[in-house]
Each structure stands twice: as structure tokens, then as C-alpha cells.
Write a structure and sequence with these properties.
Blueprint (H helix, E strand, L loop, with lengths): L2 H10 L21 H23 L9 H5 L13 E4 L3 E4 L2 E2 H7 L11 H10 L5 H13 L5 H9 L6 H11 L5 H7 L7 H28 L14 H9 L4 H13 L8 H11 L4 H12 L7 H16 L5 H13 L17 H13 L4 H20 L10 H10 L8 H22 L12 H8 L3
Antiparallel strand pairs: 1-2, 2-3
Helix pairs in contact: 5-20, 6-10, 8-10, 8-14, 9-10, 10-11, 10-20, 11-12, 12-17, 12-20, 13-14, 13-20, 14-20, 15-19, 16-18, 17-19
Length: 465
């Protein structure tokens, strides 16, 4: 996948007009060593970027309106992100591949049907669909790096149970920067051409350890501090994660593979991804950069939406009882809107269609839990809400996003601790933002420092009296 193609999708929004056939998809390299593959790819990408900027560096790609400055910079084209592109009409694409394509093409666990997050990480890093052997090599590599420093374990075990799971998660990640190979190499004066290699090593170490950290937090808060056990080096990342959490249902493990894959990346402008990029641009090590992103993910407007969906559905059940008619449901939705609230899980800042991440979870539910009462209610809500929102007239996108479904699936398999859901989101999001961070350092992207203006300065600029 060339840089020019990815860049054109991101900036000029040129869509690929093909659906890769299974027979046409192959890896550029047969090596199972991801670092070796990247070492071959990076010089090519560096040269393409250099040539592209030489020829088109002065080309204007858009304009900025005053409302965009006051409106959260929505729609301003100001970042380069290689790993994924969010198209308003088609949804997320990972290196040019849609979610259904990824489900079809990416390697899976033995007997599994959902893509291995390891295989998606390879794709995010390289732009190529990995072989089964390459995906399995990532699983083994992460298993070998999964041990968490004793001082971090001690810290986690001494946190009060009143401390939010995301606060514990972020603090543990920050404390692990004691292990940073990037920070050590930088302090020793390593040449900037090698930054990406140490960022890669930190990334692999960090992703490998996140399930262990997340499982310790879960066990301490909700399972009386019971042991997370040991990593099975012959199993995949998701299997080890669900086992450490204390879940043995194979369907839950399959759900976790899907969940960790589809929540991994959502281009570069969302709060968590942009924060990791921004903090990383100061050459903070991957631990500090990722911890900063997790503090952004913990915000109610970013990572807590699936929890808000469940709260809203619970309120609906309390007021309306068991099975409800579509008319009762419409009335409840209208009352929600008239009270000045939104219907959680519906609408998106960019998307203008049903989120493909919602649809693949819906398909999973139809396959594995079609008679679950909560799923049946969510499916009914999906049939009713869009028409109400369209009639209401204020929603640009009346369709559900990923958060409208994910919590319901977790509840079905017994994970009812809603405060913990954002930690799962964080474990997943590491795949995308850290793959991006490797490329940030490989391409030598500089310290991010946009120009800000005062209202007085803007008035003068636009000629306002």
C-alpha cells in the first residue's frame, strides 16, 4: 500500500474502486519478523514522502472557516495518518480495507471466525495483509513480552477500589515508562534516523503488557484480587486476555477478538489518537504518549458512550417494563429528545451512515445470541430511532454508531461492570495509535505546533468592525 494512495484517501478523499480478491492479497515480505519488514518498508515510504512534498508541498488542499475554529476544528485537514481513514459514506477503512474485507481476509485463530487483532496490527503497520505465520509470530512475540514490572503490579495492588479503572490504567502505563527503550536511547544521544526502531520496541512491549495490566485492574476491582494466572505462549493475544480476566466461554473470546480489532483505530483526529500523536511529537516516549491518549479516552464525550447507552436502555426498561411496542418506544425516544437529551449511541461527528462497526457486532449477535432480550431490544431500537431522529430534524446522521451495540454484547457474556468498558476500548486503541506513532517517528514528523488566534485577531483578519 503506497504512501501516495493512503495520503490521497486521507487528504483528497479519493476512494479505492476495487474490492481485493483473496487470491490477489499477499504480503510484500514472507518474513515473520515485523521489525524486519518495517525496516525494508520505511526507506521506501521516506523517499515517497520526500518526493511528494518536493512536488506538491505548496499545493492548497482546503480552506478554514471561522466557525471551524470555534467548533472544535471539525473538518480541518491538518494531520497525516497512515493507518486508517474514516469516510463519511463508507465508514472506517484500515489501510484501504473495510471491516467486512478485514473479517474475510485477515488471519484467524484456529477454529475462529473473527480476525486476530495481531493480524490487524500487522496490516496497520505495513499496509499488507499478513500471512497466518506472520500473525502467529506477533502472538508469540507479545506473549514473550507480557510480564509487567513488579513496581507497577505493586502500585496496582495498592490502589483504592474507589479509583476509577481508567485512572488505574493510565497511571500504570505512565509508570511503565521506567522500561522505555526509546527514552533510554534518546538520553544516550541516538540518531533520529533510529527513533522508529526504539519506538517499535516500546510499542511491542506496551501492547504485550496491556492485557495483563487490564486484567489485574479487573480482578482487583471485581474479583476480590484473584490471580490473573500466566500467559500461554501458544495462544493468541485475545485468548490470553479473556483467560486472565477469568472468562472461559469461547464465544466471548471470539467477541473480544472482534471488539479489539474494530475499536483499534478511527483515523487521526479523534481525541485519543490525536493526543498520542501530539504528545509523541514532543518525543515523549510511547508509554507517556499512550497514557496521555488514555486520559482523553476516559472523557465522557469519547470513550464512555457505550456505558451511557446501557444507562439509557436500563432507564427505558424500568419505565416500560419487558417487551415494548414500537409506539411505546417512539414515545420514550421523543420524551428523551424533548427533555433536551440525545439518544446515546446514535449519530457521529463524521459518519453519515450506519457505522460498519455497529453492523459487524449486530451480525455477531444474530449468529451467537439471537434470543438475548437486551439484543432484541437494541435491534428494535435500531428499527425505530432513525425515523424519529429524521422527523426531529436536528440529526445529520440518525444511524447508530459502534457504542450502540458493544455494551450489550459484553453484558450478555457476564461482563456487567460498565466502568471497566473503557479499559477494553483502551487496550484495543493501542493497536492503531501506536502503529501510527511508529510511522510518526519513521517519517520524522515534527513537533506539532498550530497557530492559535484570539477573537480580536480573527475579527481583524476577516475585516469585522
Amino acid at each position: 500500500m503506497s504512501f501516495i494512495r493512503i495520503f490521497s484517501q486521507n487528504i483528497l478523499r479519493v476512494k479505492p474502486n476495487f474490492l481485493p480478491a483473496v487470491s490477489s492479497v499477499r504480503s510484500v515480505s514472507d518474513s515473520t519478523n515485523l521489525k524486519e519488514v518495517l525496516a525494508n518498508l520505511i526507506p521506501q515510504q521516506q523517499n515517497e514522502v520526500k518526493e511528494f512534498r518536493k512536488n506538491y508541498g505548496n499545493k492548497v488542499i482546503g480552506e478554514i472557516q471561522v466557525d471551524q475554529l470555534y467548533g472544535g476544528m471539525r473538518g480541518i485537514k491538518g494531520l497525516v495518518t497512515e493507518t486508517s481513514v474514516l469516510d463519511a459514506d463508507e465508514g472506517i477503512e484500515f489501510r484501504g480495507y473495510s471491516i467486512p474485507q478485514c473479517q474475510k481476509l485477515l488471519p484467524k485463530a484456529p477454529g475462529g471466525e473473527e480476525p486476530l487483532p495481531e493480524s490487524l496490527f500487522w496490516l496497520l503497520c505495513t499496509g499488507d495483509i499478513p500471512t497466518q505465520q506472520q500473525a502467529d509470530a506477533i502472538s508469540k512475540d507479545w506473549a514473550s513480552r507480557a510480564d509487567v514490572p513488579s513496581h507497577v503490579v505493586h502500585m496496582l495492588n495498592n490502589f483504592p477500589n474507589t479509583l476509577h479503572p481508567m485512572s488505574q490504567f493510565s497511571a500504570a502505563i505512565t509508570a511503565m515508562n521506567s522500561e522505555s527503550k526509546f527514552a533510554k536511547a534518546y538520553a544516550e544521544g541516538v540518531h533520529k534516523s533510529l527513533y522508529w526502531e526504539y519506538t517499535y520496541e516500546d510499542t511491542m512491549d506496551l501492547i504485550a503488557k496491556l492485557p495483563t495490566i487490564a486484567a489485574i485492574i479487573y480482578r482487583n476491582l471485581y474479583r476480590e484480587g484473584s490471580s490473573v494466572g500466566v500467559i500461554d505462549a501458544e495462544k493468541d493475544w485475545s485468548f490470553n486476555f479473556t483467560t486472565m480476566l477469568g472468562y472461559e466461554d469461547e464465544k466471548f473470546t471470539e467477541l473480544m477478538r472482534l471488539y479489539l480489532a474494530i475499536h483499534s483505530d478511527h483515523e487521526g483526529g479523534n481525541v485519543s489518537a490525536h493526543t498520542v500523536h501530539l504528545v509523541g511529537s514532543a518525543l515523549s516516549d510511547p508509554y507517556l504518549s499512550f497514557a496521555a491518549g488514555m486520559n482523553g479516552l476516559a472523557g465522557p464525550l469519547h470513550g464512555l458512550a457505550n456505558q451511557e447507552v446501557l444507562v439509557w436502555i436500563t432507564k427505558l426498561q424500568e419505565q416500560l417494563g419487558g417487551e415494548v411496542s414500537n409506539d411505546q418506544l417512539k414515545e420514550f425516544i421523543w420524551n428523551t429528545l424533548k427533555s433536551g437529551q440525545v439518544v446515546p449511541g446514535y449519530g457521529h461527528a463524521v459518519l453519515r451512515k450506519t457505522d460498519p462497526r455497529y453492523m459487524c457486532q449486530r451480525e455477531f449477535a444474530f449468529k451467537h445470541l439471537p434470543n438475548d432480550p437486551l439484543f432484541k431490544l437494541v435491534a428494535q431500537i435500531y428499527e425505530v430511532v432513525p425515523d424519529v431522529l429524521l422527523e426531529h430534524g436536528k440529526a445529520k446522521n440518525p444511524w447508530p454508531n459502534v457504542d450502540a451495540h458493544s455494551g450489550v454484547l459484553l453484558q450478555h457474556f457476564g461482563m456487567t461492570e460498565m466502568n471497566y468498558y473503557t479499559v477494553l476500548f483502551g487496550v484495543s486503541r493501542a493497536l492503531g495509535v501506536l502503529a501510527s506513532l511508529i510511522w510518526d517517528r519513521a517519517l520524522g514528523l515534527p513537533l506539532e505546533r498550530p497557530k492559535s488566534m484570539s477573537t480580536k485577531g480573527l475579527k481583524k483578519l476577516v475585516g469585522s468592525s
